[in-house]
Amino acid sequence: MSPQTYKYVIVGSGIFGAVIAERIANDLGEPVLVIEKRDHTGGNCHSVDHSETGIHYHLYGTHIFHTSDTEVWKYINRFTEFNGYRHQVLTTFKNKVYQMPINLETINSFYGLNLKPFEVTAFIETEAHKSGIDQPSNFEEKAISMMGYPLYEAFIKGYTAKQWGCDPKQLPASILKRLPFRTNYDESYFFDSWQGIPIHGYSPIFDKLLANPRIQVELKTDFFEIRDELAEDAKIIYSGPIDKLFGYKYGRLEWRGLSFEEKIREVSDFQGTSVMNYAEEQIPYTRIHEPRHLHPEKVYPDSQTLTIKEFSHADKGDDPSYPLGGAQNKALLEKYQAELIQHENLCVGGRLGDYKYYDMDQTIAAALSTYDKISSQTK
Ligand SMILES: Cc1cc2nc3c(=O)[nH]c(=O)nc-3n(C[C@H](O)[C@H](O)[C@H](O)COP(=O)(O)OP(=O)(O)OC[C@H]3O[C@@H](n4cnc5c(N)ncnc54)[C@H](O)[C@@H]3O)c2cc1C
After folding, report:
1. pLDDT in tens, 16-44
2. Which of 26, 169, 292, 367 lies most in the core, judged by the most C-beta atoms within 10 Å?
3. Ligand 1 closest atom vs CA 349
4. Looking at the annotation, which residues are catalytic?
5. CA dihedral 12, 14, 19, 22 (to 10 degrees)
6. Residue 350 Cα: closest atom of ligand 1
7. How remote is the CA of residue 104 from the centroid of ligand 1, in Å?
8. What is the three-class DSSP state of 57?
9. 344 contact partners, CB below 8 Å, separation of at least 6
10. What's this model's pTM, rounded to 2 decimal places?
11. pLDDT digits over 59-75, tens only?
12. Residue nearest atom 36 of ligand 1, based on CA coordinates
């Protein structure tokens, strides 16, 4: 079928686009064209076997599936099985390893104490009180007023500066909503009902989502280059950056980007965990991933392991990762969203379209709800 014949056109084959394509083809029974500018489907949820070590890894940063949404869990389980991986994060500060998020073990180990759960809140409150900050006006002050300066300086300051590329004093206090520490030894990173890594990785999920012959996928195709070839009344479901859709006419939304540096190490296990954060600002990377730990059920070679350093930088619009947010970007987003309302056949979503950080389960939920709206207009 030529692009002009499709009533439904989806831009982007990440979770948002692929789930809607699956629903349109299987539930609505309509043909759908999926346009993807990369050479693979799946968007940022893409994983492959490393060519040299055979270790399965995630090309755009470690992705752990976790959810408490029953509908999403049932839906995704139609396309994959998950292993029993439970995520835990550790951080290295001054050559010593601590648990993250900050918990009783982190606090005791950092201060050289043996506080009990019923003692730690009062201890932290005393530390926080020393700062004398009653009315925090920025991220740094808020964090210090919650946990005291020493913990903030060790675990939050440098990491935040690297991650967001600015002094934490320049970030709004509103980012820190909750007291970011636990009063027990719980080291689980997520509290969701379900979590794990797809047993065969992420890519087979997308092969299955897009398997219906009614779905035509065009890889290495940029929507903006073929837009004129599409039917005028086609329903376009766009999951690329919203500012790009309108030619950046009001300006560019700001993002942080990531870059990765792979290294094969001649040891069977480099760091003993899948993700190790590096808290100090002078260490240029934010974390090291060691993907062999994501698949404890797989047998990998003992002689080698794969590690991947993650660096954070200002995005130049090529590969946005985390929305920077803030009042200016919010105002800009609202202008684009107001413009969008005038285009009846355009539906925008996903992390790039909504300019929002979405976990995978939130993206699936958003896609299912968008599909419900599309199908209710049709049925
Ligand atoms: C570093 C990192 C780690 C993450 N880790 C986790 C995690 O552990 N757990 C979790 O639940 N979530 C995680 N996420 C979030 C997860 O990646 C997102 O929820 C998910 O990728 C969103 O899917 P999407 O379809 O909205 O966007 P994407 O995956 O970005 O897909 C959008 C697709 O649109 C394509 N596209 C854009 N513009 C065009 C165009 N003009 N023409 C054609 N194609 C176009 C892109 O190439 C891309 O393939 C992480 C995100 C990041 C950045």
Report:
1. 999 999 999 999 999 999 999 999 999 99
2. 367
3. 26
4. 178, 182, 256, 287, 310, 357, 359
5. 60
6. 26
7. 34
8. strand
9. none
10. 0.95
11. 999 999 999 999 999 99
12. 12
- Measured CA to CA, the distance from residue 171 to residue 279 in angstroms comes to 18
Banded pLDDT at 364 (limits 50, 70, 90): very high
Take residue 169 and report the two structure tokens written for it. Answer: 């004093």
Domain boundaries, the chain: 3-41+210-252+323-378, 105-175
- Mutation probe of ligand 1 site: the residue of 239, 308, 322, 356 with most atoms within 8 A of C-beta: 239
DSSP label at residue 37? S
Taking the CA atoms of residue 79, residue 84, residue 86 and residue 87 in that order, the dihedral angle to the nearest 10 degrees is: -50
Cα–Cα distance, 166 to 305 (Å, whole number): 33
Three-state secondary-structure class, residue 329: helix
Cis omega (within 30 of 0) for bond into 101: yes
- Tell me how far the alpha carbon of residue 258 lies from the centroid of ligand 1, in angstroms: 13
Domain spanning 3-41+210-252+323-378: CATH 3.40.50.720 = yes
> Which class does domain 105-175 fall in?
mainly alpha
The closest alpha carbon to 35, from 6, 68, 65, 70, belongs to 6
Q: What are the pocket residues of ligand 1 if the criterion is a CB atom closer than 6 Å to any ligand atom?
A: 11-17, 35-38, 43-45, 60-65, 222-224, 239-240, 258, 321, 350-352, 358-361, 363
Q: How far is the CA of 44 from the centre of ligand 1 (A)?
A: 4
